[in-house]
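User: Show me a protein chain along with its predicted structure.
Assistant: Here is one chain, sequence first, then structure tokens.
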Amino acid sequence: MNKLRSNRYQLSLGLLALFIWLILPLAADEGMWPYNLIPKDYLAKKYNFKVTDDWLNHLRLASVAFGGASGSFVSPDGLVLTNHHVGRGAIQNLSTPERDLIKNGFYARTRDQE
């Protein structure tokens, strides 16, 4: 009898987890649109933010692609922000046994060190 209760309990937990997993996307806020289909009126109404063509163009030009990944320019001189895994290969190539950038990272104290 205890085994039957245990199986029912596990099944109930599994079904509850599945239900939660299935309904979570329903609560998500929309937010990924191609540049030419951004709902300007919706964003203005919901977030009190006016999307202009100049702002969209600035956003488009600030985005970069790295072989299937993405990043954003954060300076006018080409400094790019992206995820660590995107640049990991380049970081490994720049590392030496004496200067392990993967393990220790790199911090530019001045603009000239970047």
